[in-house]
């Protein structure tokens, strides 16, 4: 994976591991009642979304802290995950 050889990418990954992921995990645990697996999925999907935003040029300049930006991505991913869970539960009820 050549993308992860870039020093800036390594810095972002290191930062997320040290600060972004723990802060996001803490916030999500307080706000949403996800299973451990769902919580990990949200954080992983959010990490991919962050790098996609950087790669696609959607994130050129930050007007807030990187952790704040990352946590907002996590919130968006958590809302999407919660809706998928609700839809799945509704579908399961219909099939009973």
Précis, in short:
The protein has 96 residues and is mostly helical. It has helices at 7-31, 36-55, 66-95.
Q: How are the elements arranged and paired?
A:
Layout (H helix, E strand, L loop, with lengths): L6 H25 L4 H20 L10 H30 L1
Helix pairs in contact: 1-2, 1-3, 2-3
Helix-strand makeup class = mainly alpha
What string gives the helices and strands in order? Answer: HHH
Q: Determine the number of helices (DSSP H or I, runs of at least 4 residues).
A: 3
**Which segments are poorly predicted (pLDDT under 50) over 5 or more consecutive residues?**
none
Helix content: over 70%
What is the percentage of strand-forming residues?
A: under 5%
Tertiary shape = elongated
Q: What number of structural domains do the residues give? A: 1
Work out the number of β strands: 0
Major sheet summary line = none
What average pLDDT do the residues reach? 87
Distance between the termini: 45 Å
Radius of gyration: 15 Å
């Amino acid at each position: 994976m050549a993308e992860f050889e870039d020093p800036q990418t390594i810095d972002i990954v290191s930062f997320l591991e040290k600060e972004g992921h723990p802060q996001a995990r803490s916030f999500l645990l307080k706000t949403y009642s996800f299973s451990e697996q769902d919580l990990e999925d949200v954080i992983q999907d959010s990490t991919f979304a962050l790098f996609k935003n950087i790669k696609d040029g959607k994130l050129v300049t930050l007007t807030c802290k990187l952790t704040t930006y990352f946590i907002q991505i996590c919130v968006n991913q958590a809302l999407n995950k919660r809706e998928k869970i609700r839809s799945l539960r509704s579908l399961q009820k219909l099939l009973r």
